[in-house]
Amino acid sequence: MTAKFKLISIFLLATCFLNAQNFERDTIFLVFKENKADYPYNQKFIKNTTIYLNLNNGFALKANKTQTDTIEYDTFSKLNIVEPKFVEDKVLAFREKTYGKYPAKGKAYQAYTKNDLFVTYIIEKLAHNKYALYKAEWREYLFGH
């Protein structure tokens, strides 16, 4: 291989990587409601300082207990709470922008994680007018705790 070919290859790889990094991260808030009867969904597991959350749509997240905050209903009602469909649509849009097309059915392009696309917070109701706010990271597997 010539030096010119190597240089062009490195440039193209860097361009693709930087293009993916320029995708705007959204700050999103998802609501969590624990339901023990719906195992493994809608579950919260605590191990040491980590809280593992499995949401009802198969989303799996984790949060650090030391980064938990509480908020009042007035604050909660002003947050931009999103539905799971928003997350799925954003992931598909990212795939299309990055790869120039939607992935084939059953084929996942996983050169990124949802952490690259979202700054995610989970909201859990604690008591009347009191909510926990967890700064969360996406996990790759529902059963990976």
From TrEMBL:
Signal sequence: where?
A: 1-20
Keyword Signal appears in the UniProt entry: yes
Assigned keywords, A-Z: Signal
What protein name applies here?
GLPGLI family protein
Annotated organism of origin: Psychroflexus salarius
